[in-house]
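Ticket #4471: structure output looks truncated?

Reporter: J.K.
Steps to reproduce: submitted the chain below (456 residues) through the standard prediction queue, then opened the result file.
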Amino acid sequence: MPRYRFGEFVLSPRRRLLVREGHELPLIPRYFDLLVFLIERRHEVVHRREIFDRVWSDVIVSDSALSQAIRTIRRTLGDDSREPRFIRTMSRHGYRFILDGVVEDNDDQVWPSAGGLAPEPLVAPSTVESLLARLTVVPATTLEEEEQREAAERVHALGVSDALARLGTRPGHAYARALLRDARWDVPQPGPVPVIGAPAPLAVARELIALRVRRAARVMAPRWAGAAIGGGAAGISAGVIGGLILAVAPGSTAPLAVAPVLGAIGAACGGLGAAGVGAGLCLAEAAARSRRGLALSLGAAMGGGAVGTAIQWVGRWSLTALVGLRVALGGGLEGLVLGGAAGVGYALGTPRATGGLATPVGRRRLLAAALTACCCGLGALILALAGRPLVGGSLHLIARAAHGSQVTLTPLGRLIGEPDFGRVSQAVIAAGEGALFGFGLALGLTRRPAPPPARP
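Returned output as attached by the reporter:
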C-alpha cells in the first residue's frame, strides 16, 4: 500500500496515521477513510453518492454528516473552505482534493518516528466562554446548526472538562451538554460528557434524544416506510400460502378465493405491526449511540406493543359492534413480545453499525434478516405455547365463533397430525408467521436508499 506526502503532511493508510512534521493528527476512522478516498481519487471530482457508498457503506446518515466530516478534515489540515488549499467543494456535486504534487511512496519503507499528538496552544478563558455562549442557543437555521456543531468539536479539542465546569447551570446548559455529548462521537480522543450525575440529567437526556432524532429525521421516514412495506409483504406471503394450503387440504371446505382474502388480512396485520416495530427501531437507533442493543429491544417492544394494543381494541370492538361476536383477541402483549424479539435479532444482526442507521449489504443483510426471523419465530412460538394466538390462531377463533365459516384451520391441524387445530398446530403456524414477519421487517428496514442530493 502506498503512503501519500502532500505539503507538510504524510498520510499512511496502512498504519492509519496522519502526521504533520512528526506529530500525529488524530481523526476518527470514517473521517480518515474519507481523506484517503479523496486523495486516491484526487484527479477527479468525487460525487457525494460515491462517498456515501464508500465511507458509510454499512449505515445511512443524514446529509449533514458528510458536511461535518469535510469540515473536520479541513480544520485538521488547516484548510479554509473560502480559499481552499486541499479540499474544494464542487457545488451540487461533491468534493475534490485539489493540491498538486501529491507524492506516493512505498509504505514498506522505514516510517519516521512520530512525536505524539501535536500540542495544543494555551487557550484563553474568553475563547472557551465564547464557544459556550454559542452552544447554549438553539440554532434557527441549518448553517447555524453546522457552525454550532463545529463549536462543540472545538470545545472537545480544547478540553471539555474545564468547559463543563464553566458551563455550570446557566440558561441553555442542558442543550449545550446534549450537544457536547453527541459531538464526542465525531472527535478523536473525546473527554467524558456524563448525563447521569450532571445537572438536570432528565433535561439533558431529553435534549440529547431530540437532537439526534432531529438530525436523523430525513433518513428515518423512508426507512420506516421500508419496514412497513417489508412486514406487509411478509403478511401477504403468509396469508396467500396459508390460504392455498387450507383450500387444498383434505376435508377442507374453504374455496381458493380464501387465499387472496387471507393475503389481504395478512398484509394489513403485517404492515401495521411492522410500522409500529419499525418506528420503535428507527427512533431507538437514531437516539442511542451507547447501549444500542438494549435501546433497540426496548424501542421495538414499545412500538409493537402500542400498535398491537390499538389493533386489539379495534378488532374486539368491530367484532362486537358489527357481527355480535365476543372473541378474546390478543394484540398488546403479542406486539410487545414480537417487537422485543425483533429488536434483539436486529441488534445481533447489525453489531458493527456505528454513526448512523444500519444498512448491511449482501450476505450481511441476509444474515441480519435471518437472525431477526429466528428471534421473532422463537418469540411467536413462546406466545403460542402460552396460549396467545397470532393472526392465524385468531382467525381460527373467530371462525369457530361464527357459525358457517369456511376458514377454520382444523384441516391444517390434521395435516400436521392433530385431530383439531391443537397446541402443536398453533405453535407451528405461529412460529412460521413470526419468522416471516421478522424476515420481511428486517429486509425492508435495511434497504439502502439513494443518498441525499448535493446541496449548493
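Triage note (M.O.): checked the attachment and the full C-alpha cell line is present. The chain has a mean pLDDT of 87.
Status: closed, working as intended.
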